Amino acid sequence: MLLTALLPPLLADADIARTVRAASSRSRTDRSLVVAPGARPAVLAAMALGEEGVQRVAGGDAPATGSAEVSGTPLLVVTATGREAEETALALRSYLPAEDVAVMPAWETLPHERLSPRADTVAQRLSVLRRLAHPEEGGAIRVLIVPVRALLAPVIAGLGELEPVQLAPGLTVGLEETARRLEAAAYTRVDMVESRGEYAVRGGILDVFPPSEPRPVRVDFFGDEIDEVSSFAVADQRTIETLGAVTATACRELVLTDAVRERAAALADAVPGAADMLEKISQGIAVEGMESLAPVLVEKMVPLLDLVGDRLTVLLEPERVRKRAEDLTATTTEFLAAAWTSAASGGTVPVDLSAAAFAHLAEARALALSSNRGWWSFTALAAGPETTRLDLSDPHTYRGELERAVADLGRMARQGWTVVVATDGPGPGRRMAQLLGDGDVPARIVDQLSEVGELGRDSDWVPDPAAPADETDASAGAPTAGPGDGVVRVTQASAGHGFLAEGLRLALIAESDLTGRASAGPRERRSLPARRTRRSVDPLSLHAGDLVVHAQHGVGRFIELSRRTVGGPRSSATREYLVIEYAPSKRGQPGDRLLVPTDALDQVTKYVGGDSPALSKMGGADWAKTKSKARKAVREIAGELVRLYAARAATTGHAFSPDTPWQTELEEAFPYTETPDQLSTIDEVKADMEKAQPMDRLVCGDVGYGKTEIAVRAAFKAVQDGKQVAVLVPTTLLVSQHAETFTERYAGFPVTVGALSRFQDAAESAKILEGLEKGSVDVVVGTHRLITGQVKFKDLGLVIIDEEQRFGVEHKETLKALRTNVDVLSMSATPIPRTLEMAVTGLREMSTLATPPEDRHPILTYVGAYETKQVSAAIRRELLREGQVFFVHNRVEDIDATAARLAELVPEARVATAHGQMNEHQLEAVIDSFWRKETDVLVCTTIVETGLDVSNANTLIVDRADRMGLSQLHQLRGRVGRGRERAYAYFLYPSDKPLTETALERLRTIATNTDLGAGMQVAMKDLEIRGSGNLLGGEQSGHIAGVGFDLYVRMVSEAVAAYKKALARSGKAGADVIGFEEGDEEDVELRIELPVDATVPEDYIPHERLRLEAYTKFAAARSAEQVDDVLEELADRYGPVPEATARLAALARLRALAAQLGVREIVAQGKSVRFAPVDLPESARMKVTRLYPGTVLKPATRTIVVPAPGTNRMGGAALSGEEVVRWAEVLLRAVVQGDASYETEATTYRKRR
Q1: How far is CA 1241 from the centre of its chain?
Q2: Where are the beta strands (DSSP E) in 757-878?
Q3: Which of 671, 1058, 644 is nearest to 824 (CA)?
Q4: Helix (H) or strand (E) holding 48
């Protein structure tokens, strides 16, 4: 409650006081009031509290529970759109306790679409309905805000009675019972929880992701009692913090009760179009889009007004609400005829689903008036002279002219006005207070204004109705008789817009009034994502038949994961193996099979490269030849890369200074929650900038993952040090967009942003060029023209390259020259392997953004034949959400005809065309109007492919998608789905022409990879379809196809590491002078075969995919610390680690030690164990025969054969399990490493033979 103190002064106005009293009277009618938009939240809050309530709250007494009933009126506020509802709620929470205000969101899908609403939307709706039905549980809702779409959509009866699943430590609920209840609440059971509405059970641990929680939750059971509840990160599945109680609300509004299932079974034959859906529902399986059949499956649907209790209904902007309501009802009927599933097949639904259709606004009004709920409206237009007009007006909008704002506020304060400035974040508030101070206006930063005393108003002052406030009376300089104390209060509150109460001498100025920009949408203070230190979980998802590459044996086919017992009767051990099939060694025979022990999984990678490679023969020379050819080529590249690297390492660039307070302010003003990857990448970029060595970093992230924000922050950091920044983008459209983004983010800071593009005339360009040379322009955004040498900078410190894959070779050369002494930050969305060349080898630092922004959703992708009815339905659906549509038609000659056809199909849509052959100014005007939401449908060529960011455009229709390349399709699809709304992408092809094989393959790929972050999969698939291109030289492509992309990259990295080592040893850049061989650490297999039962038991991790992941992590661990880290993670995710897995960890530690000491084999053979290769000096040979009598030394083969330890000297069994691992470790430490402290322990094994 940050602005409650403003309410009592408002009630001093007679009209406002009368309005508040009328709201609480028992007889409510249809009434219209003219209220300034910025003042509406304050008036609504006063109505909700009532006169007594306002005095009680702002007088410092918090209302006691239950006393809320004494005064005030519960309200139902109706807005035109969902976004307005969120903004109104945010502003109201500045006046009322947050829990008193609730928003009931509408489904983002239409009632008849075969799509389910998002789980978090459903959870929010259900929790509101639960509170309405049971106010004693979550507290009564004083103000319920609903978009008109939610008001008019009927609701399934009885949803308020659905009891959510409560999870809190100490509750005795039983794991099985909880899982059953989650299943009934439409949660999906999976093996690893990654998105909302999923749950997983492993042993005594339940992982669940309730839709209303920011993170998934891990519940540890002890018997039937909940022992602990904690949140964990999706990215690496590790626990973050312990929580108290958690409520898991249902994920669907249609609950599959027995009655619903019976009805579904009865209807299955009657509705052929939905037969498969109904069959699943009858079996109790929640399916996508089952809500569309709710009217025929449930008892009854009721209007929302029946569920909200006794509330006064208030419409904000009734004219807009009415228009939205008409659109909704009109589109519903049309959509029933062309729902996106039936439109393609031309079918219709033979059952009556009209019960779910939107009601008419007139019906809602009649119902509200007949049940004495009233029907008030707050409008900006007076319908007639008798309409009550409250004496509240909008303040002047300054659009960033802060000097003028300071002058006006100072004048008002001197005239005795009470002036409050509310900013969204602490940064702008501090800056505003500083500006006011500089302008000699007394200002004070206050945390909150919850009591009238904090305003410093004269309590005895009464507005004089006869004398209106006169602007000129301050000219005498004497403070006039206003109630204020002349001090401007600056506070942090999301007020939305401000207002002026002329008669009351009261002014509230919001941040949006000062900057002229609406706040960037409601910003919930979500918990910050955990910073990720460890690698994310990426289970090696192998399916039978997948192609894999074994570093030693070549390309094979994965068959299965099998468990077998090895060893003789005296010492047997159970292990799991990966079974890989290779080409048969004899013609006509079945293929050879290789069993790879799970501790050597680091040798195996998935194959990505050619289309269908031949399987290698085991033990043949083919693989060795392929590999050595590739290695030779790799070395040449590595040499070239290292020379570049050495040149960069030798120069010193500018070391930027640490973050300034302004940097923190800029970052606080970011309106979204950063993803964990974004945070770590920003840290990496800043750390690079602060080093003296010039930065060269590539940021790879899928379309819309927040790369631009990283650039905004890096550029700002550079400008803070007095350096200039050049932002390079591939297209002219992007120049204006980026310039806009940078200008908007830097508003209020003294940073000058310029743009250079062909959209400008010569005079503008000349002015910017001059500014760059003199240093008055800090950040310039432009196309490749920036690096052609015509542009001179005064002091260039950072170059940012966006969409790097779009720049040609000659641009890269120019950049290469720059790179040696300027910091370079490159960004790319679809990392086609060519742009990865240097990053993957570790010569350019690389950051990957792999986590999608929190409220993004996979784009619903539809691939099918072109159908006019469907196209018009898709456009109408988008218009209904106040959204915009991209219609991509890649032929300029008939693009105007296509646009005319669409305008005919959907007459109410405003259609515009854009293509590269248009006049520049015309093109800019079109794109600009699309940005400003003045156009609904943009018919364009693929010029929008790169980087156009219109968060309001959520439907993409691509005509003739069969002619496009794969990365093009992916980039196009990335243009939509950038807001919080569900996005749709239609890839259409002509129904009368056959598809080519490649087109089919491309469309199939794009249809299957719809998840967020599918960019990498798409890039890899592209590599597969087109064959791998050239990485750096013409002869490379064959090598990638030969050894597979992953192994190839690994080989390049190794070669580079070897070169770097050689460089470091010689201390000079001529790495090629030194013989490469000595530094060439080839990837050699490490074998440890000891009688140890080391597995991950199936009852501990039942899913093969997750078991493989655990094995891979152990195999990849290179030190004891990393092994401990893996153990800690397993215990966290799956519970206490069983003995067999602890033994696996002991083996992994032994592997790490052996690798460090250069031992490649530790193999049990008969009654002894062979260690090789081992180079022992004379003293160590003496030591080994003394400590381990009976040891055979074979210096020629660098092998030692040591008698295996036993439990007893005579006739005892051989040691097994962890003891034998410990024995091997002690031997390596005492003999190979020469650590004397282990010798004593070594002697304890001596007697045993």
Answers
A1: 53
A2: 779-782, 796-801, 823-828, 845-849, 860-865
A3: 644
A4: helix 40-58
Residue 558: how many CA atoms within 13 Å on its side-chain side? 21
- What DSSP state is assigned to residue 702? -
Phi, psi of 569 (to 5 degrees): -65, -30
The structure tokens 């509408």 sit at 106
Give the relative orientation of helices 868-880 and 318-337 as an angle to the nearest 10 degrees: 160
Cα–Cα–Cα angle for 1202, 1208, 1214, nearest 5°?
55
What is the per-residue pLDDT across 1189-1226, written as a single tens digit (0 to 9) for each? 889 999 888 999 998 887 665 555 667 778 889 999 99
The answer to which of 176-190, 606-620, 1090-1104 has the lowest mean pLDDT is 606-620
- Cα–Cα distance for residue pair 672/529, rounded to 1 Å: 12
CA-CA distance, 232 to 200, in Å (whole number)? 13
Q: Binning pLDDT at 50, 70 and 90, where does residue 88 land?
A: very high
pLDDT value of residue 1032: 43
The three-state secondary structure class of 235 is coil
Please state, in angstroms and rounded to a whole number, the distance separating the CA atoms of residues 1171 and 1228.
Answer: 9
Q: Residue 1067 corresponds to which tokens in the numbers above?
A: 């201390």
From residue 105, how far is each of 96, 144, 320, 329 by CA, in Å?
Answer: 20, 10, 18, 18
Q: Give the ranges where 949-1027 is alpha helix by DSSP (H).
A: 966-973, 997-1008, 1015-1026
pLDDT at 900: 94
Distance, CA of 436 to CA of 406 (rounded, Å): 6
Length of the chain: 1249
CB atoms under 10 Å from CB of 183, counted, come to 16
916-925, long-range: CB within 8 Å, 24+ apart, which pairs?
A: 916/892, 916/941, 916/943, 917/892, 920/732, 920/758, 920/759, 921/759, 923/733, 923/759, 924/736, 924/759
Contact 127, 121 (CB under 8 A): no
Mean pLDDT of 566-589: 80
Distance CA 80, CA 147 (A): 6
Cα(233)–Cα(216) distance, integer angstroms: 7
Q: Which residue has the tokens 């401990």?
A: 1124
CA Rg, the chain, in Å?
35
Q: What is the mean pLDDT of residues 618-636?
A: 80
Count how many Cα atoms sit within 13 Å of the Cα of residue 520 in the half-sphere of its side chain.
15
Q: What is the mean pLDDT of the chain?
A: 80
pLDDT band, very low/low/confident/very high, at 1014 (cuts 50, 70, 90): low
Nearest CA-CA partner of 518 in 495, 501, 537 = 495
The winner for highest mean pLDDT among 264-278, 304-318, 1208-1222 is 304-318
CB within 8 Å of 777: residues ≥ 6 apart: 724, 752, 753, 754, 768, 771
Neighbours of 758 (CB within 10 A): 14
Nearest to 690 by CA among 798, 775, 793: 798
How many CB atoms are closer than 10 A to CB 476? 8
**End-to-end Cα separation, the chain, in angstroms:** 80
State mean pLDDT over 764-770: 88
Confidence label for 209 from pLDDT (cuts 50, 70 and 90) = very high
Query: Residue 240: CB partners within 8 Å, gap ≥ 6?
Result: 215, 230, 231, 232, 233, 530
What distances in angstroms separate CA 940 from CA 96, 545, 890, 904, 937, one per listed residue?
A: 47, 42, 7, 17, 9
Residue 479, pLDDT > 70, answer no
Residue 692 CB-density burial (10 A; 0-12 exposed, 13-18 middle, 19+ buried): exposed
**pLDDT tens, 361-382?**
899 999 888 888 889 999 988 8
Contact 910, 935 (CB under 8 A): yes
**pTM of the predicted structure, to 2 decimals:** 0.75
Euclidean distance between CA atoms 1039 and 782, whole angstroms: 38
Tokens of 978: 């950038």
